[in-house]
Amino acid sequence: MKKLLCPLCGEMPKFVTKDIDEIEVCQILCECGLATEVNEYWLLPKGDPEEDELRAWKNWKKLVSKFPPFLRVHQGDNLKLDFEDDILTVIGKDTDRGKLYLENCRGDVEIATPDDVDQWPWELKQKGGDE
Fold first, then answer.
1. 96 Cβ partners below 8 Å, 6+ apart?
2. H or E stretch including 102?
3. How far apart are CA 101 and CA 32, in angstroms?
4. Distance CA 125, CA 93 (A)
5. 125: helix, strand or coil
């Protein structure tokens, strides 16, 4: 499973374990503070640490999917606009104004809004498009 970047800061979160009330638990935690709920899979007598980590990453994927697509794209991601045949690369975004700054294969820069996007990076990958 692809480990998704944090929609708030764009960094890669980490799988962490910690003791809470003398019980070892795990979660996915980003340095900016965004985290999944603490799970208690390790309480099971036959708990498998690898399975616990997989479940924690699935929880992270669910959490990230609740953020709007605009917040989930980061510099270097590819996407497709409604009015373009080309795949464009995100070179920046202005979250205050809701603008995406994109570059095409010729090096031309375009500005778009989330409403202009036809396919987000994860949709391109699902359809066997880019990457």
1. none
2. strand 99-103
3. 24
4. 21
5. helix
